[in-house]
């Protein structure tokens, strides 16, 4: 194996080792991961929460045993493949080994370490953005039309993974039109490639059509509940923090796209960045939506810096300094951006997290620990307590476990040792009720009491507050488990009415 191959292999090994060492043992899976894993049990061409690719990965994880190891393996794999793709982009741009090492270091020691700890569509999305840009660079260098088709496949898969991939296209198209690379629009194979993309995404588009385009409702709900609290200024601040140690490399990439002669044919990438960021700002997108933009600019900057440092005095020393800078700037990120510290530690070092905005939740307020970390606590406790009550009630008939949100339902289904299939009127679970069973009992999992006993007990023979989540750091702290036994009415009919009412909102 060549020296470059050995070094790339080491980077990938370090990537996997880091991913498995960045989560403190106190933490469990994150709220979204439970829902995504449950998708494997309900195969479809679309879901209310995500497009179908996540369910395909979840199915593989289920086949492999559904252990936490495999849940964490795939986002780590997508992160490792992102490093590999950036390495190949540098190679395509005629960068040397130093450029590859600098680029790989920048991508490795970044926000991607956090992103790649979670089984969500985001890790694959960043990889696919990078692969699309790689395909475009390969096409421009070689003018081989196969790269248009390869890029179309990546975009199609990206659409089936997360609809945000559309922003990559919204940024590239006007950028190409502003430069001499607009000639690509005269290439007939571009439109055949677009047709290939349409064929790939068509099953999901048809699913959206037949289900009343729930993505529109999802985006409206997201806008009203979460994006309304997004600050455009905070969005821009976060962009610098994502790749903090490599900001100088990214800036060098921007400069090179203007001034470096060999990159003249890639100058549209500079416009691509500004158009894409502008669209994100206009729609008040979450800051992490833009992460997929940066790996390619780290590649451009690394190649330019490698050439420039060869020409100046003390260039060899500055090469070492530049990689050291990436390492040093990663230290403060390492200390706050990952769930590698216990909740108690975070509580006693609040200011350290607050200055990076880590304590700000989607409600726009500061809390004890970061929201993602709080979403990784209390789930086993909830599942164990529901399991216990389920055992008691199941002796007297069929029991329905109804939760307030998808995190509760997914966590119970993942950890339950009783084969519980909890449901909710929230997210995809609204489509997963099994009303072929005649239910006599109900376990109601509520985020807050809300007079639940007063409202529901009249239609059951017995009712009680069974238990609650007591972990003070969990986002689900205070979630109450109600137990209702011996229905006096037809529960199934009541549930069906509630399903119809909730679906009407979609």
What would you note in describing this structure?
The protein has 506 residues and is mainly alpha-helical. It has 23 helices and five strands. The protein has helices at residues 3-21, 31-38, 53-63, 68-92, 97-108, 112-115, 121-142, 146-161, 166-177, 188-210, 214-225, 232-242, 247-259, 268-282, 294-311, 315-336, 343-347, 350-354, 371-374, 379-393, 406-415, 452-456, 491-504, and strands spanning 399-403, 423-424, 441-446, 460-468, 480-487. The chain has a five-stranded mixed β-sheet with strand order 2-1-3-5-4. The termini are far apart.
Descriptors:
globular, mainly alpha, 5-stranded mixed β-sheet
**Fraction in beta strands:** 5-15%
Largest sheet: 5 strands, mixed
Number of helices: 23
Q: Given the C-alpha coordinates, what overall shape results?
A: globular
The whole-number mean of residue pLDDT values reads 90
Task: Strand order, main sheet: write it out.
Answer: 2-1-3-5-4
- Measured as a percent range, the helix fraction is 55-70%
Distance, first to last CA: 55 Å
Q: Note poorly predicted spans.
A: none
**Rounded Rg:** 25 Å
The helix/strand order is HHHHHHHHHHHHHHHHHHHHEHEEHEEH
Number of strands: 5
Structural class: mainly alpha
